[in-house]
Structure formats: C-alpha cells, structure tokens
Write a structure and sequence with these properties.
The complex is a heterotrimer of chains A (636), B (274) and C (346).
Chain A: H1 6-29, H2 46-53, H3 55-86, H4 91-106, H5 109-123, H6 129-154, H7 158-165, H8 170-199, H9 202-207, H10 215-222, H11 229-268, H12 279-309, E1 315-322, H13 328-338, E2 340-347, H14 350-358, E3 365-366, H15 370-378, E4 382-383, E5 412-425, E6 450-453, H16 456-466, H17 476-493, E7 496-498, H18 501-507, E8 513-517, H19 518-527, E9 531-534, E10 542-550, H20 556-566, H21 569-579, E11 582-583, H22 586-594, H23 620-634
Parallel strand pairs in A: 1-2, 1-3, 6-7, 6-8
Antiparallel strand pairs in A: 3-10, 4-10, 5-8, 5-9, 5-10, 5-11
Chain B: H1 9-30, H2 46-49, H3 54-86, H4 90-105, H5 108-119, H6 124-131, H7 143-167, H8 171-179, H9 184-195, H10 197-213, H11 216-222, H12 229-240, H13 243-273
Chain C: E1 3-14, E2 17-28, E3 32-36, H1 43-51, E4 58-63, E5 66-67, E6 78-81, H2 93-103, H3 108-121, H4 137-149, E7 155-159, H5 167-184, E8 187-192, H6 195-201, E9 204-209, E10 212-217, H7 219-224, H8 229-234, E11 239-247, E12 250-253, E13 256-259, E14 269-275, E15 281-283, E16 290-299, E17 304-310, E18 314-319, E19 328-332, E20 339-342
Parallel strand pairs in C: 3-8, 3-9, 6-7, 7-8
Antiparallel strand pairs in C: 1-2, 1-4, 4-5, 9-10, 11-12, 11-14, 12-13, 14-20, 15-19, 16-17, 16-19, 17-18
Classes of the chains: A alpha/beta (636), B mainly alpha (274), C alpha+beta (346).
C-alpha cells in the first residue's frame, strides 16, 4: 500500500501541474524579449536588467524578506509561549485570549487593515517599517497560536514537572523539554506565519507609509501597465525560495555526513555514545540555521544594493503619486541634482489616497485629480502655491489652466491632462459607427465585445452624456435615468467592467471597444496600431491631474523646486514619453505629438469643446447614491 | 502548573491593544453615522437597515455561493491529494507537503497576473487552442476564471490541513476495517473520512473564509461585474468613504462566519455522538 | 532512625472540595514508606505536595526540620518517578538519565560514568543510545527510576510506578525496587492502591481514605491489627461482623460467645469483629462453634475459597481442604484469630 498506483501518481502530477503551471509561465515569460505576456518572441535578460536597476523593487524584496523573517520569528515565539501559558491559565483568561485571537482570523483582511490603520494613526505612530512589522506580527501570531495550542494540550503535563523535578528551572524545562517536543507543531506554525506574511498585500498596504513597500505593494502598483519586470520579479522570488529550500536540504546533509564521520571516529577511539544531542532535533536546528544564514546573506546583498541609492541626513520630500505615473529615473536625477531624498509612494485611485490622508498619513506633495483637488481645498488639506518660485510656470499650457475646480490655480499646478473616450478596433468598427457617439456602447452588434471602465463616476459620465445631461448633475431623476441606461447596457451588451487590466487586454486585442483615458489610449495605440480613439460629440470628461503641496509640508522651498523641475521642458518631455499621458507643457506636448506619438490622436485631446466638462467634487449623499446604484449595476 | 501561567500575559496585553481596540473602533463605526465615532456618538441602526437592499443581498448570496462552491471543489480535489501524500514514506511526505506549500510563497498577486495571461481571450491557452485548430474560448471575466484563481490560491491550505489529520492516522485501523468485512468504500466513509474530519473541517473553514473575503482575485480575474462581499467592503472604505456602512457590512460578514462555524462544530459533535 | 520529612496538619482544597483533611506524618531516613488507599484518597496529592508540584492550602512540610513549602521543585532534594514515567520522548535513554546532571552542568565525564553506573544498577547497561519510545513498559520504568536516582536525592517519590505493568513483571519490579532501595540507602515514598504491593515492599504503610490517614504501621500490624473497619476491609479479605464486647477477653456475635485476646472496652460495647478467612477452620458440624452449609467453592490455586452460609450470615473461609457444596459443616476459631475493633465514627 506504500507504493502508489498509476492513477494516484497521475493525480499528484496533475495537481502539481495546476499549482506550478502559472509559476512556470511567469518564469518563462520573464525571459521574453518583447513586452508581450502571451507570445514568446525571443530570449532576453532585459527585464532582469530593469529589475536590478529598479531600486524600488529591490527595496521591496528586502522589506518583504526581512519583515517575513522577523514577523515569523517574533510571532512564533509569542504564539508558542502563549500556547504553553494558556494550557495552565485560568479558564476565563484562556477563553478571552482564544476568542480575541479568532478575530483577525475571521475578519476580512481589509477590515483588520483599516482597524490597524486607525489604531496606528490615533497612537501617533510613524507609519513605515515598524508599523508594518507590528501588523504582520499581529496577523501571524493568531495562526501560530491556533497551530501550536492543540499540540500543547496533547502534551503529558508530567513532562514539565519531571524536568523541574530533575533540577531544571521552569525556563530550562521549557527550553530543554517542552519546546523540543513541540518542535513539529512550532515548525508548522512558523511555516504558516511566513507564508501569510510573505504573501500579504492588503494589510501591508494600509499600515505602511513613508515609502516602505513590500513585494505585493510594488506588484500591485506595477499592474497598471504591462511591465514584464513583474515576471522577472516573480522569477526572482522563485529563485530565492529555491535557494532557501536547497540550503535547507543540502546543509543538513553535508553536516550530517560530517557528523557521521566524527561519530565514527569517536566510536573508534572508544568514546562513543551518549552525547547530549539527538539526531532529529539537531537536524531541524540546522535547517533553521541554514535558512537564517541564507536570509542574512540576502539581507546583506540587498542592503548593498540599497546602499548605492544613498541615504543620509539630507532634506526629504514625501511624494504621493498615482502608480506608473512618473519616469523613475527623473526622481533619482532630481535627488542627485538637489541633494535630497524623495520618499516616493503610489496610490491606485484618488479615493485610496484620500483614505490614507484621512487616516493621518503625512505627505508633502500629492498628485490628485481635479475633483479631488477641490475636495482637498474644501477640507483644508492644502497650502497655496507660491507661483513666484516656479521659474518654469510660463511653459504651462494656458488651455489647462483655470479649470473650474481651482479657477485661479491657487493650490494646483497641472501635471498631466486628457479626456475620456472610446478606443475601438479599426478592423471591426467602421468609422460611420462612430457617429453614434456614446450610444455606440449600446450597439448590439458589439454585444459582449466591449470594456467599460470600473469606476462609478466614469460609467455614469458615459450614461449621463449619452442621455445629454451634465455629468455633474445632482438631479436624482437624471441620475436614475443614467442608471437605467447602464442597466440596459449591462443586460443587452454584457460588458466587462475592467480596471487597469483594460490596457493589457486592448493591446492584446481581446475586444473591439473600450472606454479609456486618453493617456492610456495613447499608450495602447503605440503598442497596437489597429486601434483608433475618439471622444463622442455629446461631450466627455475633460480631466487634469495636478501637483499640490499639503499643509504638512515644512520644506516648501524644496517642494516648489520639485514642482518646478517637472515643469522643465526636458524633464516634462521624458516624463510624457515614459508615461504616455498628455503633458501640461505646451511645447513638450507639441513636440511629443509630432515625434513620439505621431499619428496617435489620443495624445492630443480636444480643448475648449463646449460639451466637455470637468468632474466636480460630489457631496456625500450623491456619492453614496452613485455607489449604491453602481453596486446594483455590477451585481447581476 | 502555575510556573508557566505568566507566559500568556504578554499576548493578553497585545490582544487588548492590537485586536480589541481596533475591533471596538470598527464596531463603533458600524453603529454610528457620519464622522468620527469617538468624538460624536450618534448611535443608529441605519447602516444595517441599508443592507436590506436587493443589490447588497445579491452580493452576499453570490459571495456565499461562490465561497461554498470554491470550498467544495477544493475539498473534492484536495482530499485525494492529501490522502495519497499521507500514504507515502515520511521523507517523501515532507517533500510533497513542502511542494504544496511553496506556491503559496510566490505572491498571490503575481500568480493571479499569471492566470490573467493564461486565460485571456488572446492568451496563452487560447493561443494553444488556435494552434490546434480549436475555436478560442472566453475564460477571463467569468465565474470559471475566478474559481480557477481561488482554487489555485486556496487549495494548498485545504491539502495541508487534511494531511495533518490523515498523517496521524493509524494505518492498522484501515486494515482492521477491511478485516471486519468493510468494502473499500465503507472503509473510506466509516473510518478514514470520519477520522480525518477535524482536518477536513479546519480546511473547509480556512478556505471558505479566504474565498468569501478575498477581493483581489475577483477584481482581477472576474472584472468589475464580479462583485463580492470583499469588493463591497473595499468599495465602501476606499472609493465611497462610507466607513460606517463598510464596518456594518464587515460585522455582518463576521457574524455569518461565526454562525457557520458554530454550525460546523455542532455537526462535528453530532457526528461523534452518532 | 532519624526524622527526614515531617508533614504537619496538611490540608488541600481544590475549589470547594477538600482533598486533604489534616495529614500528620513523620518519614524517617532510609525508610520505605507506602501511601496506600483507594483512588481519590489524597495519596497522590500528598506526594505531589512533597515533590513541590502542588502547594498545600494550610500546614507545613518540614525537610530536615526546615519548612520547604516555598522551595520550588527544582531546588528540592527529592526526585520523582511518575505514574506514566514522563520520559522525554525527544531524548534517548542516556540523555533522559543524564538530564538532571546536565542541567546542573556537571562535567561530561562524570555524567557519563554516573549514568552508566545507574543504568547497570537498573539492569539497562548498554541501552544508552536507544530511543525511549521503543522500550518495553518495564524498561521504561527502569529508565524512569535511573533518571531520578542518578541525581542522588535524599528521597525518591514513586507515584503508582508499577500500575502499567503486567502481573509477573510487577512482582519482579517489586523485588527490584526493594533491592535498589537497600543499595542506594535512601528514603522511598511509594504511592499505590494495591495492598499486596504495599505489604510486601514497605517498612511502613500509611493507609489513607477520604483525605485522612486511617492507620500508620508496619505491614504486619496493619494486616493483623487493623484499627477500623475501613482498614480491615481494604487490607486483605475479612469477615467483619457486628458484635458486643461483653467484658474483657469475651466477645459475642451471631448469638455465640467467643473468647478473645482484646480488652479495654466498656462492658457491652458494640464493636466490629474481624476474622481473616484463613483463620477459620472447617470441621464437622458438631465440632464447630458455628454451623452452616457450604454454598460455593472456588479454586484459587493455593487454596479453596469456600463460602459457608451460617444462620445469620455468610463466612468466607480459605482452606486447602475441599468440601463439596451442600455439605453441612461447622466453623471453629481460636481466641488469637479474633480481632476486635472500635466501631468507626461516622
């Protein structure tokens, strides 16, 4: 029965194939020479080069590994001693601890995450490495405790007594008897803790700050654009794990061989037998030591890489920008030029940024969109811009100045801008169809062949504009009409409500139509020449993202220099080339449109069109109504 | 023994600060209206009343159904794997269990991205089908893709949990059952399955919990129309900023989970009695 | 013999349950003392208080005249052999035995020689590298004893150590334990519920019931002169009969007057009369003081156990002579065979 039959072998192989297939694909495509994630065009190491150069990712690897190791060690220690203590505690204390212990396990991560974010803010902790570590210990320990506690209960209570009876102090009894016997359970708990910590995204994201990021956070921010560096990162993680495993397997084997030799020698010289050791326990210890050594090595290696990026007692600027919304080289060049340190963090949406601000996180410079600027001004988060400090202010395109959300640009300096339109496959959609405007999205010929944008405001904008209303309407009847439009579209057209994955999907040509931002459209059209972009006549959302300075900013001179730096023509050009969004610098926009984005009309959004509007800040009740209706649209 | 009693004190303090306080904060949010609940206490049940909306109830039902389906598939697929592994020699068992654990170390997001590339309309699998002359199949943004993603991420936890209880099982019990005339099927249902029940229940709880509260996998593999409780909570906390309603939803989720766990424990006890 | 341990008025409460109700006991050097009683009588609790694993609710534990109540177990010169041995599963035989010496950081060579000497004392020479979980019950038992004795304690506590062994092995270990105690020359405090074990090994037997000491004495005293009905019942088999002490040296039961060797009771005092089954003789009906019919006969190996139904009760008789069931017989006994006790106060 020990020998498994053909079918069980086959089954095991199939299961492992299922587990490892995506990992294998990732590793293979990390060597792809092109950007494509589905067609292998040739072998290249370019993504690894990009990975090594990207200090942000290397820092994240360092943070992930050290946090996982520290959190594992500490939570294993805490969970184990608690489990041992609990078995001797009074019932009431035991029940209390076990009940509280279940809360983080039972609650969805996001709730736990928000709870800790609130806690750390109210305690006035500086968000970053320490808060992330504390949170990881916080959610790992319950898993260790639930793993180890049953093992403790199985233990013969006389064992501890026997040890003390023989002269061991309670501490010695713990170390020499209880812990060695519990080792398999503790090991299982530690493994679980490591897994949980290494893989965590949600909790880490909310409790961290000041530029401390782990692999998950970086991976999440990178998901906006296809960036095969992600694959290289996965492959690197696979390699790290493989090395750790190999060491855990190899080192004990080598030392076991050595040990065997030593024993044989000892036996030969007549001193054999009874050492105060036991084969199995040493085995485990060695494995753990080996793993620790590998981690230490990695740590030193990454520290070295980090060291090159340079830290010190220099001026700092905390910048909070959307993901993939800047050329990272520009940031490091600014650091060199001005001898300062930029702590750069990214968010997924304006609302995410606002949530962090609300929780008390502090930044110097933010890059929010128009309506969010309006909200931040209303809620007194921002300080006015001193335009006299911005020597390059004249470069700014007058057509993106003075929008309704901040009419005099008292608080905001334009960064990128654009509008929202329809991206279409020229081979599928004829140019006559475009005259349908937004109602093209209701044309049943394209049913099941389109992406909407998964954002309530953008989707309602489409519906409202299609119906000829203002997208900033607060009239409930109009909103309800738009809701009906969206429901009808959902039922007749079967659209996919995609997020940023629409970019990859449209590049791959998966569907014929998509609602996208002009900047994304420009980027996609660079990669897939079959696509066209147009903004419907009914009008659309004209938007602008701004650089703003918060009230928390102390070093306002440096902040202004940072903003001014991005208004410089050479900088703005490189930035727009990298990001693909339309520059707010007039000369740069013209140059990029003529060279880099030649023939891509999405790069030059129309301006001054009467039906186009800017999103305005919505009050709470309208926002809630939108959210509720949007939930109803999405929950079929 | 009184000597070790003090060992649990540090964690007790930790729990009070890091678990109870945040939980109370969430609790306060769920029962209050707008604003900071600590400064202005306006108790209300309106957050809970709001959930009685067909849209939200649909979200709950869909989440619970999907969670149950995912858990069932993980159980059906994971049990044989755990059983086969538990029948191997010890060294081999350890290696195989390690092999089940390792994929979970590779970031969940990174693995999900890999599935996106595999399953998309012009993705790797469809490319392969095209190569074979078969018409491409739409897999992304369906229940299929969400469930595949969840199984790939959560099944290891099921396997490890079941394996833990199978591994301890005395093989002579199976021989005894056979000896007493039980058919292989009877041996399985009456002896093996019953003895591994704690592991099965534990695995079911873990996978179910993860499945109904996850929001990244449905968001990436299911698209925006795949709205589950996790997404609803995320939406309330992040994009709407209605922390009160978000807290209420998560409290209700916690209560549902607690009730389900009670039910399972009861089933387990009855099984032992019966 | 010198006093080594003295228990003074020891009580112990668990929640509201009183498990020890005032234990007073003196234990001497080099004594083999057994705490004997049914389960729940408090014997193990007493042992655990001496070992330092439990704290008494009131009373004192004196060791060499010093109160050691506050001394933790690892500082007491006392070692324990636990009921299920509590061997450390992660250590081999050698390391189990060496544990106490190692935590005291004794020199390796000394540890080695001491452990090896102790292993050969318990008959396990050469077993050092073995895995404890692969040993037989008897061998585990020996490891547990060696592990305790290697620390050269002044007192060895043994908590029902033979309970898990089969009958034959148990007999062997009893002899072995007695031998070891003689060889190392220290005090053994032994807890058991098996009266035969207690009688065959001990210098002193302490019979306990319901948290109280019933009788302290040598095995012979305990057997022959039980102080009350409980002891008489618990130790060996007895016929216990209600009687009246008519006067000194004369007791009456079952309507017959018997001469006896007891005195000092008030006249016509109701008493318990103990007659051991082996002291009764079966004779012809006309020769007996009591008459009856043989009810049943059970062969017990060395003797027959015969139940005789007399006029008022059944008597148990142990004899080597066979009598067929249904036979009319008489029972006789000499004054030495009658033991008169005070009625127990309830």
């Amino acid at each position: 029965m020990k020998k498994s039959g053909f079918f069980s072998k086959l089954y095991v192989i199939l299961c492992f194939a299922f587990f490892y297939f995506p990992i294998l694909i990732t590793v293979i495509f990390s060597f792809n020479s092109s950007k494509s994630l589905s067609r292998f065009t040739g072998f290249s190491l370019r993504w690894y080069e990009a990975l090594i150069k990207n200090t942000d990712i290397m820092n994240a690897v360092y943070v992930s590994i050290t946090i996982a190791v520290l959190a594992t060690v500490i939570s294993t220690f805490l969970g184990t001693i608690t489990a041992i203590g609990l078995s001797h505690s009074k019932k009431i204390i035991r029940e209390t601890i076990l009940t509280m212990n279940d809360i983080p396990i039972l609650n969805p991560d996001i709730v736990t995450a928000i709870g800790w974010m609130l806690l750390f803010s109210s305690l006035g902790f500086k968000k970053g490495y320490v808060t992330m570590l504390l949170a990881h210990i916080g959610f790992c320990t319950p898993f260790v405790l639930t793993t180890v506690y049953p093992k403790v209960r199985e233990l013969d209570p006389n064992l501890a007594e026997a040890a003390m009876d023989l002269g061991a102090t309670p501490y010695e009894a713990l170390r020499k008897v209880i812990l060695p016997i519990l080792k398999p359970g503790i090991f299982a708990g530690a493994l679980l803790a490591f897994t949980m910590s290494f893989d965590d995204f949600v909790i880490s994201y909310f409790v961290t700050g000041n530029g401390v990021k782990n692999i998950s956070i970086v991976a999440y921010n990178m998901s906006k654009r296809i960036n095969p560096t992600i694959n290289a990162l996965s492959a690197l993680v696979v390699a790290v794990i493989a090395v750790i495993l190999a060491c855990m397997k190899l080192v004990p084997r080598i030392s076991a061989r050595r040990e065997k030799k030593r024993r044989a020698a000892a036996l030969a010289s007549g001193k054999g037998g009874g050492d105060y050791t036991e084969e199995g326990s040493k085995h485990h210890l060695r494995r753990i030591a080996a793993a620790a050594a590998v981690c230490l090595f990695m740590w030193v290696f990454v520290l070295y890489l980090r060291g090159r990026s340079g830290t010190g007692e220099t001026a700092q600027l905390r910048v909070y920008n959307a993901g993939e919304y800047v050329d990272p080289d520009l940031i490091s060049e600014f650091e060199e030029e001005y001898g300062c340190k930029i702590i750069y963090e990214t968010f997924e949406s304006n609302e995410m940024m606002y949530t962090k601000l609300q929780a008390g996180d502090k930044y110097d410079i933010l890059v929010p969109s128009d309506y969010m600027v309006e909200r931040l001004v209303q809620e007194d988060y921002l300080q006015p811009i001193d335009w006299s400090l911005l020597s390059n202010a004249d470069n700014l395109d007058p057509s993106v100045m003075g929008l309704e959300t901040d009419p005099d640009n008292t608080y905001s300096v334009p960064y990128f801008w654009g509008n929202v339109g329809i991206l279409y496959d020229k081979n599928v959609v004829s140019s006559e169809d475009l005259s349908e405007g937004w109602n093209l999205l209701m044309d049943t010929r394209y049913a099941g062949n389109l992406y909407m944008y998964d954002s309530e405001r953008d989707s309602f904008m489409v519906a409202l504009k299609a119906l000829g209303y203002s997208m900033n309407t607060t009239d409930e009847n109009e909103i309800r009409a738009a809701y009906d439009w969206l429901i009808r579209q959902r039922d007749e057209m079967d659209p996919i409500y995609a997020g940023d994955d629409v970019i990859d999907n449209m590049i791959a040509g998966n569907k014929a139509l998509a609602v996208v931002y002009s900047g994304d459209a420009a980027y996609i059209m660079q990669e897939n020449e079959n696509l066209g972009y147009y903004a419907p006549e009914e009008g659309t959302n004209e938007w602008c993202d701004y650089m703003v300075i918060t009230k928390d900013c102390k070093n306002t001179d440096l902040a202004h220099e940072f903003i001014d730096y991005f208004l410089r023509e050479d900088v703005a050009l490189r930035n727009t080339q990298y990001v693909g969004y339309t520059s707010a610098i007039k000369s740069v926009r013209e140059q990029a449109a003529a060279e880099d984005f030649a023939g891509i009309d999405a790069y030059i959004p129309r301006t001054g069109y009467n039906n186009d509007e800017v999103f305005r800040y919505q009050d709470r009740t309208v926002r809630k109504l939108f959210a509720q209706l949007w939930t109803m649209v999405k929950s079929k | 023994m009184k000597h070790f009693r003090r060992l649990s004190t540090p964690y007790l303090i930790w729990c009070l600060l890091f678990i109870l306080v945040p939980f109370v904060l969430i609790f306060l949010y769920a029962f209050t209206t707008t604003g900071n609940p600590v400064r202005t206490l306006h108790f209300t049940l309106s957050n809970f009343a709001k959930i009685n909306d067909p849209a939200y109830i649909k979200v709950f039902v869909k989440s619970l159904g999907l969670g149950a389906l995912t858990t069932a598939i993980c159980l059906v697929l994971g049990y044989p794997l755990a059983y086969i592994i538990s029948r191997q020699e010890e060294a081999r068992q350890n290696a195989l269990i390690m092999a089940v654990t390792v994929p979970t170390w590779i970031n969940m997001l990174l693995r999900t991205y890999a599935w996106m590339n595999l399953l998309s309309d012009n993705g790797i699998i469809n490319g392969f089908l095209k190569f074979l002359g078969i018409d491409p199949v739409t897999m992304m943004y369906t229940s299929f893709s969400v469930i595949i993603g969840m199984i790939c991420n959560f099944m290891p936890f099921m396997v490890i949990s079941i394996h833990t209880s199978l591994e301890k099982m005395d093989y002579s019990l199976i021989e005894a059952a056979m000896d007493l005339g039980a058919t292989p099927a009877q041996t399985f249902t009456k002896v093996i399955l019953r003895l591994s029940m704690p592991g099965v229940l534990n695995g079911v709880v873990i996978v179910f919990l993860m499945a109904i509260s996850s929001f990244m996998i449905p968001k990436l593999l299911g698209g925006g129309q795949y709205m589950l409780i996790g997404n609803l909570i995320e939406q309330q906390f992040i994009s709407v900023g209605d922390w009160n309603f978000g807290s209420a939803v998560s409290l209700i989720l916690a209560v549902i989970i607690l009730l389900l766990m009670r039910l399972m424990k009861k089933m387990d006890v009855q099984r032992e009695d019966g | 013999m010198e006093n080594l341990i003295e228990l003074r008025n020891l009580t112990k409460n668990y929640n509201d349950q009183q498990v020890l109700r005032g234990i007073n006991l003196v234990i001497h050097q080099n004594e083999f003392l057994t705490l004997l009683g049914p389960s729940g009588c408090g014997k193990t609790t007493t042992l655990r208080i001496i070992g330092g694993f439990e704290e008494q609710s009131s009373g004192e534990v004196l060791f060499d005249g010093v109160d050691i109540s506050a001394v933790p177990p690892y500082k007491r010169e006392v070692n324990t052999v636990f009921q299920h041995y509590a061997l450390f599963p992660h250590l081999n035989v050698f390391d189990n035995v060496a544990f106490g010496l190692n935590v005291r950081k004794e020199d390796k060579t000394i540890v080695k020689s001491k452990v090896e000497r102790m292993l050969s004392l318990v008959g396990l020479a050469g077993f050092g590298p073995r895995d404890v979980s692969r040993l037989s019950g008897g061998q585990q038992q020996r490891v547990a004893i060696a592990r305790a004795l290697v620390n050269e304690p002044k007192v060895l506590l043994l908590d029902e150590p033979l309970g898990a062994l089969d009958a034959k092995l148990r007999k062997e270990m009893q002899m072995e334990l007695k031998k070891i105690q003689k060889e190392v020359g220290i005090t053994f405090i032994f807890v058991t519920h098996d009266q035969e074990e207690a009688l065959s090994m001990s210098d002193t037997v302490v019979v306990m019931n319901e948290g109280q000491i019933q009788q302290i004495g040598t095995p012979i005293d305990i057997y022959n002169e039980p102080e009350n009905r409980f002891v008489a019942n618990f130790i060996g088999e007895s016929n216990i009969v209600d009687g009246i002490m008519k006067k000194d040296y004369l007791v009456s039961f079952d309507g017959v007057d018997f001469e006896c060797v007891d005195k000092g009771f008030p006249e016509n005092e109701p008493v318990d009369v103990v007659i051991r089954p082996e002291d009764l003789d079966i004779v012809k009906p006309e020769d007996g003081k009591l008459q009856g019919e043989v009810k049943s006969v059970v062969f017990k190996g060395v003797h027959y156990e015969i139940t005789v139904a007399a006029e008022r009760r059944c008597y148990k008789v142990h004899t080597t002579d066979y009598s067929a069931p249904g036979t009319q017989v008489g029972l006789t006994l000499t004054p030495d065979d009658i033991h008169v006790m005070w009625k127990m106060e309830y």
